[in-house]
Design a protein that fits this description.
This protein is mainly α. It is built from 19 helices and no strands. The chain has one domain (12-473): Amino acid/polyamine transporter I, CATH 1.20.1740.10.
Length: 474
């Protein structure tokens, strides 16, 4: 099937940069290090790498293929491919769900991204030369201040909408071709600084030494979930970016590069953060506060801390903006092509709505912290607006969308349609990918989905892993 989108990336390299920018975000630099910290270090990293190879990459190829084969925004692309495969156009509902997931995530992602802007200013001022305990409390003070959160949320959204409003080549391409190389350079500079100012040997040991006794069903589950979410599948953004890919660009090779670069950034983030953590006798398992509470404490007490602390949060902001423009692009593209809105109008309408919806997240940290919309249900007792949006997107809609995409490509699409557009280099690899997308990927994501909904439910894989460890022990 030929691509029907009127827009294309200027080159395959630009597409890869943009897709890497979409996948690389706060999840890599903020979330991955603290998950490694609380999940046992190198043991988790090993399982994570296996999950990327056998789960994330297969579904990444599938989503990019749907985008290019369908040639439009997610709902239209799904409908076009389904029709070409002789299936119902009702499969477009999967595309609508993916687009909605990305849009909802954008509403709170922008708020969190705004924190990075606030911390650029704080780091540049040396965190006011405050004591370590006071520096950690600055994060709580920021969250408790609705006015400042609205200001930084608004600034970050304005930057994003300006970029997306300029279109594919004048906006998104120009930004990612500058920010992504800059991000990698800044990462390497920060790693060099961590090697000098921190305990690099201990950081490397923590990140890569593997203690198999720490691998259990819980570790495997978290690794699968992190691999799935980190690559940013089932959010509609990669399907949209895939619709702009020229026919001569290999989707399979591109997927390997995208997943490889995404994983590399996550590992580099660990090499940047953990030496500083250990060099300052901080706790690597301090959880989500690792970036906004623990790291500022380290920067405040190190030579050149103001300069490198500022660079660190600029790096975070770069990663966040490349992801956020990708989250907004699918709905802007849909409104532009399906409803014939001018791009600028589409961006203003849906960007403005995303900004307004983001206020629910802003106020969830302060004036509405005690507001629990679904508190009457035991499962959602204590959930704020932010908690609900995060829960339904990450724990329900994304895994469900990923399962449906895998089943659609694996079982609803004729293999001949896939072979026309995907080149694996050998028939064996092609068959292996097809059965991964048919069986392994849906079951793995289903496990993530079920475990997130019913965390106390016994896992069959847990019993299997226990048996394996007993056999290995003997």
């Amino acid at each position: 099937m030929a691509t029907t989108s009127a827009k294309t990336w200027s080159s395959g390299f630009t597409f890869v940069l943009a897709a890497v920018g979409a996948a690389v975000g706060l999840g890599n630099i903020w979330k991955f290090p603290y998950i490694v910290g609380v999940s046992g270090g190198g043991a988790f990293v090993l399982v994570y790498l296996v999950s990327v190879l056998f789960i994330a990459i297969p579904i990444l190829i599938a989503e990019l293929w749907i985008g290019r084969a369908g040639g439009h925004s997610p709902p239209v692309a799904m409908a076009n491919v389904a029709q070409a495969a002789g299936r119902s156009r009702a499969w477009s509902l999967v595309g609508y769900m993916a687009m909605l997931v990305g849009y909802l995530i954008a509403t709170y992602y922008c708020v969190i991204a705004g924190w990075t802007l606030a911390y650029i200013v704080k780091a540049g001022a040396g965190f006011g030369q405050a004591e370590p305990e006071a520096i950690a409390q600055q994060f709580d003070a920021l969250q408790a201040d609705p006015v400042m959160l609205v200001v930084w949320h608004s600034v970050f959204m304005a930057i994003t909408l300006f970029i997306v409003g300029r279109g594919l080549r004048r906006g998104i391409e120009r930004v990612v071709t500058v920010l992504m190389p800059a991000l990698f350079v800044m990462l390497l500079i920060m790693i060099a600084y961590a090697a000098v100012a921190g305990d690099f040997g201990k950081g490397v040991e923590f990140l890569f030494s593997t203690d198999f006794s720490k691998i259990d069903s819980g570790t495997i589950l978290v690794a699968i979930g992190q691999a799935f979410f980190s690559i940013s599948v089932a959010m509609g953004l990669l399907m949209t970016y895939g619709s702009y890919v020229p026919r001569q660009v290999s989707l399979t090779k591109s997927a390997l590069v995208i997943a490889g670069a995404d994983t590399l950034v996550a590992l580099l983030a660990g090499l940047m953060i953990f030496p500083l953590v250990f060099g300052n006798d901080l706790d690597p398992g301090s959880g989500p506060g690792l970036i906004f509470q623990t790291m500022p404490t380290a920067f405040a007490g190190m030579p050149g801390g103001a300069l490198f602390g500022t660079a660190f949060f600029v790096l975070l902001a770069f990663a966040a903006v490349t992801s956020l423009i990708a989250l907004i692009e699918p709905i802007a593209s849909f409104a532009e092509t399906r409803w014939k809105l001018r791009r600028r109008d589409a961006v203003l309408v849906f960007g403005g709505l995303a900004w307004a919806t983001g206020l629910l997240t802003v106020f969830s940290f302060n004036i509405w912290a005690d507001v629990h919309p679904l508190g009457g249900f035991e499962a959602f007792k204590g959930f704020t607006f932010f908690d609900l949006i995060d829960y339904f997107t990450a724990n329900l809609m994304m895994p469900l969308g990923g399962i449906l995409m895998a089943l659609f490509v694996g079982w609803m699409v004729k293999p001949s349609m896939l072979s026309e557009d995907l080149s694996f280099g050998s028939a064996l690899l092609a068959r292996g990918w097809l059965w991964m997308i048919r069986i392994v990927v849906p079951l793995a994501i289903l496990w993530v989905l079920v475990s997130s909904l019913w965390p106390d439910l016994p896992s069959p894989l847990g019993y299997l892993w226990s048996l394996v460890t007993v056999v290995m022990g003997n």
